[in-house]
Write a structure and sequence with these properties.
Blueprint (H helix, E strand, L loop, with lengths): L12 H13 L3 E3 L1 H15 L1 H10 L21 E5 L2 E4 L4 E4 L14 H13 L9 H13 L5 E5 L2 H16 L3 E5 L35 E4 L4 H11 L5 E6 L4 H4 L7 H11 L3 E5 L11 H6 L5 E5 L10 E5 L1 H4 L25 H17 L1 H22 L5 E5 L2 E5 L16 H24 L2 E2 L5 E3 L6 H15 L2 E3 L3
Parallel strand pairs: 4-14, 6-7, 6-8, 8-9, 9-10
Antiparallel strand pairs: 1-16, 2-3, 3-4, 5-11, 10-11, 12-13, 13-15
Helix pairs in contact: 2-14, 4-12, 5-12, 7-9, 13-15
Length: 492
């Protein structure tokens, strides 16, 4: 197993949780209203007229003006024209440090030439899709299986959401059970059954608008880092048909925004074995970002099924897949007789595993492997986080910065650290109101970062890539410093 990993020092989850507890109890510190108004006027309105005009027109044809949730930005989304390495460029000619990294997949940086050349070559020869088998379907699957010991077979889908849906069906067929347990706050795509307990632990179906509550009959959640809560649910499920699978993001909910104790995954694996439930690792973000062996390699865990997304197609379309042990993956056999008289999972996807996505994914993984990109990106994450911690101390702010390799977190208001306690239902309106208020402040902070040339994920998560250099990180920290110097306590 490849032992090169992006994480040099695993964060102290207990210490970080204490700091986040203190953050959500302290007054809100955010960009001053004077500074925000200045950014809105001089940068967005005056310096980004082409973006403003295009988004204004797009709202007539696209709900909200954008096709992807990550594209939203206060006061309006900016329109990007070029992506190159660690930088993005908008249609008004501005350059930005790209800490969004398309939501995480571009470990090599945006649009690496070594991958792009192979994609162009493919397009010239055979086009993006034929609906029939292509040699790179085999090459990509072989590369994934050779990289991650628990993955004996691999099947592509169009997204991580689809792969999670397939994992549920495989788990139910393999075990004959229906119940699915997930960690509260974790995001496993937007399918009906997994739109439960998302973003904040304990929310159950509160945020699943448009999903009938009866669809959650066989879905439960447990609180992060709470093994007792997980085992109670597993034990209770024995009385109602057993548990088919336990889903987990290995670094913690929302890509480690609420970090897990380092030994937590091993204990979850132990409980899954004890209760005969499949362990499903959602490595949509961590797969090939923490290391070539995934987060499971780092934690020394062998899940039964692994969900992939984002990087599996190198940032190109068709970014999803499910891998696992042969005994379970046989339920995904497509039209081939496996010798077992079993029911096959109903899955599909005409545009899954296109030649384009498989070529891009294969050469991306080859380049990540060959160039030790995970470790290089992780070192840049370390440098960025240490720099942010220094700036937080310099400006005497209550902010919390930490990282799991190249997955970096800058919590300024702690929105994701809240939770819902159904034993105290009278507190739920307070939690909803408080998180809504803090989410707005995240948007304002995101606008300030953007105006200073920093593209982030919701103003609180930052991904580094192997395209960054120490000099780039240090230059970006100067921009963060300019924003931090304009922070004030926000009065209600």
């Amino acid at each position: 197993m490849d032992t090169r990993f992006a994480i040099s020092t695993y964060p102290d989850a207990v210490e970080i949780s204490k700091k986040l507890d203190a953050l959500i109890k302290s007054p809100i510190y955010s960009i001053s209203r004077e500074a925000l108004a200045h950014y809105e006027r001089t940068y967005f309105d005056e310096s980004c007229p082409l973006s403003k005009t295009m988004i204004g027109e797009a709202k007539h044809y696209i709900p909200g003006g954008v096709q992807h949730n990550l594209a939203f930005n206060h006061p309006f989304p900016l329109v990007m024209k070029k992506a190159e390495g660690a930088y993005l460029y908008d249609i008004d000619g501005h350059r930005y440090f790209d800490f969004l990294q398309a939501g995480g997949p571009t470990v090599l940086g945006s649009n690496p030439p070594s991958v792009r050349e192979k994609v162009v070559e493919l397009l010239q020869d055979g086009g993006p899709s034929t609906g029939l088998f292509h040699e790179y379907e085999y090459k990509l699957a072989k590369k994934v299986c050779e990289s991650i010991p628990s993955v004996e077979m691999f099947r592509m889908f169009n997204s991580g959401s689809e792969a999670c849906m397939a994992a549920i069906r495989v788990a139910r067929l393999a075990t004959g059970r229906k119940n699915i347990i997930k960690m509260g706050g974790a995001y496993h795509g937007w399918s009906d059954q997994l739109a439960y307990g998302i973003r904040l632990p304990g929310t159950k179906g509160i945020q699943a608008h448009g999903v009938p509550s009866y669809l959650f009959k066989h879905t439960q959640e447990f609180f992060p880092n709470n093994l007792d809560a997980l085992e109670r649910t597993l034990r209770l499920n024995k009385l109602r048909g057993g548990t088919a699978a336990v889903f987990i993001e290995p670094v913690g909910p929302e890509s480690g925004t609420r970090p897990l104790d380092k030994n937590f995954n091993k204990e979850v694996e132990r409980l899954c074995h004890a209760y005969h439930a499949l362990l499903v690792f959602d490595e949509v973000v961590t797969g090939f970002r923490i290391g070539m062996a995934g987060a499971q390699g780092y934690f020394g865990v062998s899940p039964d099924l692994t969900v992939f997304g984002k990087v599996i197609a190198g940032g190109y379309p068709g970014a999803g897949g499910l891998g696992g042990k042969q005994d379970y993956m046989k339920y995904l056999a497509a039209g081939i007789q496996t010798g077992d008289k079993i029911h096959k999972a109903l899955v599909g996807g005409t545009m899954a595993a296109t030649p384009l996505s498989c070529v891009a994914g294969y050469y991306t993984l080859e380049e990540i492997d060959k160039s030790d990109a995970c470790k290089r990106a992780g070192l840049m994450g370390d440098r960025l986080t240490k720099g942010l911690q220094t700036l937080i101390e310099k400006h005497s702010l209550p902010f919390v910065a930490f990282n799991q390799g190249s997955i970096c977190h800058l919590e300024t208001v702690g929105t994701m650290h809240f939770s819902v306690n159904w034993k105290k239902p009278w507190t739920i309106p307070h939690v909803i109101a408080e998180t809504a208020k803090r989410k707005k402040e995240m948007e304002y902070m995101g606008a300030a970062y953007m105006a200073e040339g920093l593209v982030t994920l919701a103003g609180s998560r930052l991904y580094t890539s192997a395209a960054y250099t120490e000099e780039m990180i240090d230059e970006s920290l100067k921009a963060f410093d300019r924003v931090f110097s304009q922070i004030e306590c926000i009065k209600d």
